[in-house]
Amino acid sequence: MENEQVKKVGRRALLSNMSVAAVAGLAASAATVSTPATAQSAGFSPKRHNQDAWMGELAGSHRAFIDSSTPLGGANAVRYAKNIIEAHEIDYGGNASDYALIVCFRHTSVIYAYDDAIWEKYGAIFDRNADPAPRTNPMNTASMANGQTTLADLRANGVKVVICSKATASFARAIAAATGGAADEINAELVAGAIPESRFVAAGVMAATRSQEYSYSLLYAG
């Protein structure tokens, strides 16, 4: 009887040890699977390009990139930039200078990237539904659409505006088709008529992705 009891205790001990070993093995296996993924993520270093270096040079303890691709989204982007700065100043006791903030006009929101002289000439093409046709850039006037904020207000707070070169070229072709002009000449005219202190990028969509490689939070405004 005593030997039988000893055998039972031994079997329980063996099973218990096997269970502990199994749990330890699963834990080790899980660690082995996650470690390479973690190391790969932590070790990723995007290739840098001279065209994007300016993003890394903007001063600020916070970084945000506000992307827009429609006229409504462009107005939203102006308003969102103002809201971010205002909330940071009022609720966090911060300053606009704490933010490296970029607003992107691409696709059809690119119309807001041009000055009033361009709108005077091509406003009817930029907004075909308006009657009368707009003769100034709507983002140069405070309104409900842009949260009572203008492009000049953004500049005063250090917000940078980037303009999609591909969208500009696309609008140049549309204007050329409507007016009988030369697309290359109109494109040069649009570039020369960009809003002050703005920057052209190869493509707005690319700038949005590259900004994240420089640790910018991405916000899409529409």
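Above is the first protein from milestone M3; the second protein from the same milestone is given next.
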Amino acid sequence: MNSQELKAFSQRVSDQLFGHLMPFWCGPAVDREQGGWMACLSNDLKPDRTQPKGLIVNSRILWAFSAVHRKRPDLLFKHMADRAFDFVMNRFWDAQFGGAFWRLDDAGRVTDDSKKIYGQAFYIYALAEYHQAFNAPPALARATELFESIERHAHDPQFGGYLEVRRRDWSEAAADARLSDKDMNEKKSMNNHLHVLEAYTNLYRVWKDPRLEQRLRELIGLFEKRILDPRTHHFNHFFDEQWRVRSDTYTFGHDIEGTWLLCEAAEVLGDPALLDHVRTVALPMAQTALREGVAPDGALCYEGKGGKIIDPGKECWPQAEAVIGFLNAFQLSRESKYLDASIRAYDFIENRLVDRVHGEWFWRINEDGRPDPKLPKVSEWKGPYHGSRMCLETLHRLHTMQS
């Protein structure tokens, strides 16, 4: 790509972020009756107020407006970030035991008070971003308090890593550890550790605590030694407490997302030797995702097993991660196939996933090439995080490539 082509690509991504995605989250997605954001909107924006307001999507909304404001300071983005900050600080926080509740009902009443570590991680991730954007000591104080709680109650000192869930009072939870019906009920998961890594990376940007550094290094080591299958270059998904593998499938989106999140963690740690080593792990994973997971139309398929695609559906979030992950692989290798893959994934987003009638992106394109009508536009799992982050990361990387 020459400089003009890079600029044109940057403009497309900027238009997507500021002209399409963020207006949706400043407009139709806002809950002007009950506060915060709508719990669930159908593809044509019909609300379902029986659905829960989840910790994940509300933390991701806080992260997105904070991060976008850092890129382009704007009073509207600050207003929305403040609105999200107020909602997660006052509605989701457990004033008695600390930590964040998993789910609220439409009116903001707690319906699931469990402490799922995946959710606590996103809470930290968002608070650290808000602090970076607005220099907000209360956000940093709560993020570090939550770090202490996770380390005290969920870190496994014997085998390493983090348990999936604790009770409200942070005691051992004997009940279901799953995040959703798709998951296995096991003690440890790749997904949980990937987002603890991501959260701790963001927290380390603003809080250079030596214990946090130690945990980041531990997490990078766990991904290489426990979670990644070195023969296949895929992440295993579920494990028992001693890290024995309990699953036999992988998701291409998590694989490609992990390639750049691991590099980011090593880069934030400021350890050149570690970063060089992580890059030798990330590139074969990106190559495998490109070879095994990308469909002829450039989209990244959802799930694989034994070297074969077992779910060819094209969900929105893996396409966002493919844009970043393959662009990262190009920056590491300078091999044009990765830049081509990144652009093709973005083309698929623009051509197939963007809803030009009702806004935002469709959740999933099925095998028939049409959006899945059963999946909502907004839910406790469908928010602005993957899309806005893809745009921000891509703009940053393209700027670096032009300079």
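Note on the second protein: The longest strand covers residues 308-311.
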